[in-house]
Design brief:
single chain; alpha/beta; 19 helices; about 45% helix
Length: about 475
């Protein structure tokens, strides 16, 4: 058996799954695959050039914040290499994530190691690059510092073997260094951090002439704005003042906006915070075509090979409330299903019919299954959440608005009970905010999931919605 018999996308003539869900990299491929974000890429790139300020992005889960930052950073790096800016902004291959129980020193250690690895990786690329018109002081310190050997040795195995290395003399580009074994357990953090700080100071010898771009991603995983503030405040003096590091915060459900209330962080943030919106419906077809072209094995018009039409993917995107991550996941499932039943080679008419048959079935089946598990009036929360008023995201404080738009009477306690039920069923996702009375950002935020959006669509086409709000965004795709 060959790979075509096992791999859906190889059978379609693709080297890779075009619907794979991952952040785009800070590289040429990532730049090609980012569609519909030109203005925001430019905005993020401008923010990254602002020394001493943290670039902040907020937006729904799956909207593409990390991809946006990665491509903007790549553009900044390329701009320096081609003499278009004097600021050297270096991308990293990975972002950072914080957990509530993270130890500050351990997190700092992870940061400095990834920064060192990133500088070493890009250093190899720069050895053969012609730097006409650029600031060579940056590059000379990057390529020729004696610290490089020490860091490279440390990352390359000395620390892992339990025998870290240090320099025995002052570390600067004008002095010679010798290596000696350091058996101190603390060196793996403190000593290594000092090496990296020294190297950063050599490369970015003038404050404001650039830095390594470090992204702290998924701040909503800290579960509350207050928790995010406390954690980041603990890192402020350890990391956010380090010369040669440029910071980016990314989060969902308003958690990044809550950071502005922190006296210790507020002055560090580059405001206004960038609200990353969903890409427009008009960009879905170009986005899919770009991915197909990138991974094609040589065939033109790869969209004709898919078992689903591009316009139907756009329809699905609208139904699930314009979440790109959910669309890619559903498109992948759809293609895999047709591969498994041997129905990849379809005419355009057959594709249209299959999608129109599949959409009501998948939505109604899920709706019927879930309806037996909760009181029917519970669905009014979903109905109102998916209306033009909220478009899939709302807060616990929106009870009065929900009540006024409901066709049935509800109380605050009933509302909260229904919310809990919908979260358990996977219809809503919840970002938990602290309940302490001194936290002005005490607010539970709910977002309708792709599963919830599909269930609501079934209710919409069956005319079973229980609210007075409008659904103009759904009217144009009603079959």
């Amino acid at each position: 058996m060959n790979s075509i018999e096992y791999d859906c996308y190889a059978a379609l003539g693709l080297q890779e799954n075009p619907f794979k869900i991952h952040a785009l990299g800070a590289n040429e491929v990532g730049k090609r695959l980012l569609v519909g974000r030109d203005e925001q890429v430019q905005l993020v790139a401008q923010r990254l050039h602002k020394h001493g300020k943290i670039t902040c992005l907020d937006g729904h889960v799956g909207v593409g914040k990390t991809s946006l930052v990665n491509v903007a950073t790549y553009d900044c790096f390329q701009a320096f290499l081609h003499g278009e800016t004097t600021q050297l902004l270096v991308p990293l291959s990975e972002s950072f994530q914080l957990a509530k129980d993270d130890n500050v020193n351990d997190f700092c250690d992870r940061v400095f190691r990834k920064v060192a690895n990133g500088l070493l990786a890009h250093r190899e690329q720069l050895k053969s690059f012609s730097f006409s018109g650029t600031n060579l002081e940056h590059v000379n310190a990057w390529l020729n510092s004696p610290i490089v050997e020490l860091i490279n040795d440390t990352l390359g195995g000395a620390v892992n073997a339990g025998v870290p290395l240090v320099a025995s003399s002052t570390l600067s580009s004008s002095t010679t260094t010798t290596k000696q074994t350091n058996t101190s357990a603390g060196f793996s953090q403190e000593g290594f951090e000092q090496l990296v700080r020294k190297w950063l100071n050599e490369i970015f010898s003038v404050q404001g002439n650039g830095g390594v771009v470090c992204v702290i991603d998924n701040l909503e995983l800290l579960e509350s704005g207050a928790a995010a503030r406390r954690t980041l405040e603990g890192l402020r003096d350890k990391l956010f003042n380090v010369n040669g590091l440029r910071w980016v915060f990314c989060g969902a459900n308003g958690v990044v906006h809550s950071l502005a209330a922190s006296p210790r962080l507020g002055s560090f943030l580059n405001t206004p915070i960038i609200d990353v919106q969903n890409i427009t419906q008009s960009h879905i077809e170009p986005l899919i075509k770009t991915r197909l072209k990138e991974f094609a094995m040589g065939t033109d018009n790869m969209e004709n090979c898919l078992p689903i039409r591009l316009q139907d993917l756009t329809t699905l995107y609208i139904i699930i409330n314009s979440n790109l991550r959910d669309l890619l996941n559903l498109a992948d499932e759809y293609c895999e299903h047709h591969f498994n039943i041997g129905k990849l080679d379809l005419t355009e008419e057959q594709k249209e019919k299959r999608f129109k048959d599949w959409l009501p079935k998948v939505t109604k089946d899920s709706y019927r299954t879930l309806s037996s598990r909760i009181p029917q009036d519970t669905w009014l929360v979903l109905d109102i959440a998916m209306s033009d008023n909220y478009k899939g995201t709302f807060g616990i404080g929106d009870f009065d608005s929900f009540s006024s738009n409901s066709k049935v009477q509800i109380t605050q306690s009933t509302f909260e009970k229904w919310l809990r039920n919908l979260v358990k069923l996977g219809i809503l996702s919840k970002s938990i905010e602290d309940s302490s009375t001194d936290d002005e950002f005490n607010r539970d935020v709910y977002t309708v999931t792709a599963k919830g959006s599909l269930v609501h669509y079934a209710r919409f086409i069956a005319n079973e919605t229980k609210n007075t709000a409008t659904y103009n965004w759904l009217r144009r795709i009603h079959y």
